[in-house]
Design brief:
This protein is an alpha/beta fold. The chain has a single domain, classed as TIM Barrel (Alpha-Beta Barrel). The protein is 37% helix and 13% strand. The chain has eleven helices and eight strands. It has an eight-stranded parallel β-sheet. Helix 4 links the parallel strand 4 and strand 5. Helix 8 packs across helix 10. The N terminus is likely disordered.
């Protein structure tokens, strides 16, 4: 369980907090509503939980204690831990993090179709609410048959299927995505490439799935597909505005801490406070919409 209380951020004072894997030390400039959620981050603890043998990125340690400092700095109370590709289908680190975080946390894991009902039940009790399919960088084989088999296993638990894949993969998999009987979540703005952005056919595929009532989009990983780059990521912000104008009730925010893609590329760590401030640009500083994205939407999808 959480060992120390988290204060009401409306009454919090500005302070400088240095967080591992995050540049900058300041709090966000936008007003962060109470019970706001970071819907996408990872925990890495290689000393206790070794990486998958095929993992070549060798990400640095990013522990629960490190992340709690980020929560304090960003004034967030809820979080969703996502099993990273470095662990393959080994979810021990993620589940251990859930136990440490307590009732204000949820998780998304990576599993085999052969996972037992007992394991699924234990995960569900801990707070797992979805499975991730990593078509972009996963160290395990992924195909339509495997996706369908895993979804069949999780359907009874009302978990969602989360996808990290290219926009081209989204278009190619449209028939399958339309058939899956669970809610769908697209990582990192659906990986719409720039400068095409919303002109890429994947945007229409995702919007149709949203209209159908089955899809959500994570406004996370601004740096993944941006050509404009930091600090404003103007092209990705434009994409985010289009999503929010289309369906604010299906948008989520994620920090993507500790920013594994930036580590792998040897780039400077993003300023997480500036990343969450970009939600202000995406929503035109609409406080009601900010609360919907940061509080209400995660409550619906993750069951807080």
């Amino acid at each position: 369980m959480i060992t120390e209380p988290i204060l009401d951020i409306h009454k919090g004072t500005k302070e400088s907090i240095l967080v591992r894997h995050s540049s900058g030390v300041k709090n966000p400039e936008i007003s962060i509503p109470l019970n706001s959620c970071d819907c996408h981050h990872h925990i890495y603890d290689p000393a206790r939980y070794p990486y998958h043998p095929n993992d070549s990125r060798n990400q640095p340690e990013a522990t629960v204690a490190n992340y709690r400092l980020l929560q304090k700095r960003l004034r967030l109370q809820r979080n969703v831990v996502v099993t990273p590709s470095a662990y393959g289908i080994d979810n021990r680190c993620t589940l251990d993090a859930l136990r440490q975080f307590g009732s204000q946390a949820r998780a998304v894991v990576v599993v085999n179709p052969s996972i037992s009902n007992h394991e699924l039940e234990e995960m569900n009790t801990l707070g797992v609410r979805g499975v991730r399919f990593n078509l972009a960088a996963g160290p395990y084989p992924m195909n339509e048959n495997r996706i369908s088999q895993v979804v069949e296993r999780i359907q009874a638990w009302d978990w969602h299927a989360q996808f990290w894949m290219s926009a081209n993969d989204t278009v190619e998999l449209e028939p399958l995505l339309n058939k899956l009987p669970v809610r769908l979540v697209f990582d990192h703005f659906g990986h719409l490439p720039q400068p095409a952005g919303t002109l890429h056919p994947a945007y229409k595929v995702i919007c149709k799935l949203i209209d159908k009532g089955s899809a959500w989009v994570k406004l996370s990983g601004f740096y993944h597909d941006s050509l404009d780059g930091e600090p404003k990521y103007s092209d990705i912000v434009t994409t985010g505005r289009a999503y929010v104008e289309f369906a604010p009730q299906r948008m989520l925010f994620g920090s993507d801490w500790p920013h594994p893609s930036e580590h792998s590329a040897g780039r400077r760590m993003p300023d997480d406070a500036l990343l969450i401030d970009l939600l202000g640009d995406i929503t035109s500083q609409n406080q009601s919409m900010l609360r919907q994205i940061l509080v209400a939407n995660p409550e619906i999808l993750y069951g807080f």
